[in-house]
C-alpha cells in the first residue's frame, strides 16, 4: 500500500524524510545526505540498545514489553510454539532492535525492507563472522511475517555489531498482506 496512506505515530511524523517523503528510521545510516534504508548503522543501533530507544522513532520506550517485526521463518516458529503451549525464546540473536508497538505496526506496513517479500537487509559495519554471515549476505524475507511483542530484550554491543535477543512473547500479530495492521495501528494511535 502507499506509505503515505498509513497514519504515522507522532514521533515518526517528526523523523527526517527522504526526498520521497519516507520517514527515516532511527537506526538508518546516512551517506552524503542520503538515508541508506537497506543498512543498519552501528553507532545509532548501539545508542538505541543502551538508552532503550525505539529503533524506528528514536524516542525512549517505557519499561515493559517491546515490539519488533519478524519475518516468515521466525513468525512460523513463534506460531508453532504458541500452538504447542511451549515458551518461545529466540536463541539466535538478531541485528534488528525493538520499538514501540505503534512504530512497529507502522513499520510493518511501510518499511520496504520489512513489508516487501524478498526485500533484503544488510549491515553498514564491516566485518563478518560465522554467527552473522547469513545476515551480512542479506536475508530474503518471506511473504508473511508478524509484529511481535516481547516481555523484554537483551543486547550486546561488539566492535562491529549490535545484537539483540528477545524474551517471552506477549503478543503475536501475524500478517500476510501489506495493510494487515492498519486497523490495529489506528486503534493504537487512538488510545494515546
Ligand atoms: Zn517508536
What topology does this entry show?
Layout: H1 10-13, E1 30-31, E2 34-35, H2 42-51, E3 66-70, H3 72-84, H4 101-110, H5 112-115, H6 133-136, E4 145-157, E5 162-175, H7 182-190
Bound molecules: zinc ion.
Zinc ion (ZN) binds next to loops.
- Give the spatial strand order of the biggest sheet: 3-4-5
Structural class: alpha+beta
Terminal CA distance reads: 25 Å
The number of E-state strands comes to 5
Contiguous low-pLDDT stretches (5 residues minimum) are 115-120, 123-143
Mean pLDDT: 83
Q: Return the string of H and E elements.
A: HEEHEHHHHEEH
> What is the percentage of strand-forming residues?
15-25%
Rg over CA atoms, rounded to whole Å, is 16 Å
Q: What helical percentage do the residues reach?
A: 25-40%
- What general outline do the C-alpha atoms trace? globular
Mind summarizing the main beta sheet? Answer: 3 strands, antiparallel
Summed up, the helix count is 7
Distinct ligands, ions and cofactors found in the model: zinc ion
Characterization of this structure:
By secondary structure, the chain is an alpha+beta fold. It has seven helices and five strands. It has helices at 10-13, 42-51, 72-84, 101-110, 112-115, 133-136, 182-190; strands at residues 30-31, 34-35, 66-70, 145-157, 162-175. The strands form two sheets. It has a three-stranded antiparallel sheet. Strands 1-2 form a two-stranded antiparallel ribbon. A hairpin with a 4-residue loop joins strand 4 and strand 5 (162-175). Helix 4 runs antiparallel to helix 7 (182-190). It is globular and about 50 Å long. The two termini are 25 Å apart. The model is unreliable at 115-120 and 123-143 (pLDDT under 50). Residues 11, 54, 56-57, 59, 99-100, 103 line the site of zinc ion.
